[in-house]
Amino acid sequence: MNKPTILTGDRTTGPLHIGHYAGSLANRLQYQETHEQFLLLADSQALTDNAHNPEKVRNSVIEIALDYLAAGIDPSLSSICLQSHLPALTELSMLYLNFVTVARLERNPTIKEEIRVRGFGRDIPAGFLCYPAAQAADITAFKATVVPVGEDQAPLIEQTNEIVRRINATAGGRILPEAQAIIPKAGRLPGIDGKAKMSKSGGNAIALSASSDEIRRAVRAMFTDPNLLRVEDPGSIEGNVVFTYLDAFDQDQDGLAELKAHYQRGGLGDGKIKARLEAILQELIAPIRTRRAQLAEDRGYVLDVIRAGTDRARERTEATKRDVVSALGLFQL
Ligand code: TRP
Predict the structure, then answer these.
(1) Which pLDDT value is given to residue 1?
(2) Which of 10, 111, 183 to mutate to test the pocket of ligand 1 (most atoms within 8 A of CB)?
(3) Ligand 1 atom closest to the CA of 135, numbered from 1
(4) Mutate to test the pocket of ligand 1, among 40, 114, 129, 317 (most ligand atoms within 8 A of CB)
(5) pTM of the entire predicted model
(6) What's phi and psi for 64, nearest 5 deg?
(7) 218 CA to centre of own chain
(8) Helices and strands counted in the chain (H then E)
(9) Percentage of the chain exceeding pLDDT 90
(10) Model pLDDT, residue 37
């Protein structure tokens, strides 16, 4: 029996944080037994808005591989592969760009939002505007049908499927499968300051490699209900970052429901809810931190894992490239 294929990945722009964990890493851990899984260290995509800072992009390759392995990605079940070393991805991207319009790329909600956040104005790197076609190449080169990602990536999967349908229509057959995004119910985790996006550059993230001190400080600084001034005051759950994180990480959902009710009634201060969250995060991250430190000592092993994964991925993606080139009716030598 062939297992269904998963392809997903992360831009190599810094170590992963607990938003990545809740957003897709937890799903990837869950699927690695039942699916054939490829995890892409997306360094070429990282370059689309970091061309001026290749050092960050390069150094983050090992950092993210360490995060994967420390979190429990098993290299005998999942292949960790390096995007820039898979030429078929770049070649397919170039072909796919003929099946998407500039207007459609500009309308992609993820791209629109990222252009706004980065303040590109009209000075958008062409590679950045076009990265949805490259992401379609990533996904389809593996013939992946399942893509575990955070909520913000959904429009990219939608656009991938549009490209797939156009290519299949042109080829007159089902050359490429459509893919389904797997998105966590909890939605995207905000930053500890309550801002919509958790990011390392925003200084509002908790890294998967955070020290216990960093975790403590981050939870203490977390945005709650600004109107709750005394313990007796009724508190609000809405927009309260501590509860948003508890929703994502607390296994005891009944206990959490009681806690919420108490907080809303009044009589429960921020100290108590923060203590509960901190204990949960310390417990989640401690074993990851320990494994990560051990693995970081053995860079050779991590490199071997990436090399082996990239070799497996190369075979897979080259085969798809040959299929697509021939299905599109290009001349065969
Ligand atoms: N765009 C993803 C991110 O920003 C990274 C990524 C690259 C990806 N290629 C992918 C995700 C393919 C899923 C599938 O983190």
Answers:
(1) 66
(2) 10
(3) 9
(4) 40
(5) 0.95
(6) -75, -35
(7) 21
(8) 15, 5
(9) 88
(10) 98
Whole-number Å distance, alpha carbon 165 to ligand 1 midpoint, is 20
Q: pLDDT tens, 11-51?
A: 999 999 999 999 899 999 999 999 999 999 999 999 999 99
154-193, pLDDT tens digit by residue? 999 999 999 999 999 999 999 999 999 999 887 789 999 9
Beta strands at 36-42 and 180-182: parallel, antiparallel or unpaired: unpaired
pLDDT at 169: 97
- Joined together, the tokens standing for residue 269 give 């201060």
Where b means 16+ CB within 10 Å and e means fewer, 4-28 reads ebbbbbbbbbbbbbbbbbbbbbbbb
Q: Which domains does the chain have, with CATH numbers?
A: 5-189+298-328 (3.40.50.620), 212-293 (1.10.240.10)
Q: Is the dihedral of CA 246, 252, 253, 255 positive or negative?
A: negative
CA of 156 to the centre of ligand 1 (A): 9
In terms of pLDDT, which residue wins out, 120 or 85? 85
**Residue 180: its pLDDT value, please?**
97
**Is residue 333 over pLDDT 90?**
no
Helix ranges restricted to H, 26-184: 26-31, 43-47, 54-71, 87-96, 102-107, 109-118, 126-129, 131-141, 154-171
Residue identifier of the C-alpha nearest atom 5 of ligand 1: 10
How many Å apart are CA 16 and CA 111, to the nearest integer?
A: 21
> How many CA within 13 A on the CB side of residue 248?
25
Q: Is 228 helix (H, G, I), strand (E, B) or coil?
A: coil
Q: In the predicted model, is pLDDT for residue 308 greater than 90? A: yes
> From CA 187, how far away is CA 154, in angstroms rounded?
11
Cα separation, 287 vs 298, whole angstroms? 17
Amino acid 331 reads F
Listed in sequence order, the residues at least 6 apart from 55 whose beta carbon sits closer than 8 Å to its beta carbon are none
Binding-site residues, ligand 1, Cβ < 6 A: 7-11, 40, 42, 45, 135, 138-139, 147, 149, 153
